What does this fold into?
Amino acid sequence: MNDFPQGSVWLVGAGPGDPELLTRKAERLIGRAETIFYDALVGEGVLALAGPNARLVHVGKRSGRHSKDQGTIDRLIVDAALKGERVVRLKGGDPAIFGRATEELDACRAAGVSVSICPGVTAASAAAASLGASLTLRGLARKLTFVTAHARAGETLDLDWTSLADRDATLAIYMGKAAATEVSRQLIAAGLPADTPVALVESASLPTERHFRTRLDLLPIAARSALGDGPALLLIGQALAERTVITATAAMEACPC
Ligand code: SAH
It folds into this structure.
């Protein structure tokens, strides 16, 4: 199969960190790439799958510490492809979710460079797996909203809190750690009950993974005290309630008959 000719680019989803959560296609493309541009959130285990002669270029961005601006990244990718290299642009999670993929797709297409996307496991799916919970719940959480709570430097968070405060939905908030206090305050002000279940998941799928359950009014304290330096996702909604599972024996003991 030659879906990766010289001079072409793949935007590849690196998943949440654990290399076993890569797709087989991602693994193959990473192994064939001559140049790999990768983000700060791409796990070491994923980078270890690169070929021995591949050039690995860190173009990492973590909030507040932008090492390369988006325009520079776009140019680096296009230049490498125009030199005839097989280029992989590795992005944490799924490239099409809060990954600035549009800028890179546009830059490649404008330069006449062939570009394709290989999807990846997004952080919300990995977070649910690490909690052992479902993001949706029949009859109670029929909607799943992915939202970013990242504000540009100096700007306040401009979100439609009224529509986000939906009791039938699960909210998966990306880049929300710094905004946890505002998220809690605004959602409660917009009508979500203060005791709405919340889960915080940090570094999902990695050995440093941590998770913590709390409620919406206690989210600010939890975000400050329970989380470290890793990327973290906030999950909010009834689907995240701790569930009491009644086992058959317990049910029989409780039964008066
Ligand atoms: N494209 C990525 C999201 C990039 S935005 C995806 O689909 O997952 C970066 C944000 O994703 C982080 O601030 C954090 O909120 C979340 N994130 C990424 N990796 C994560 C992980 N392993 N555990 C928890 N959250 C993660």
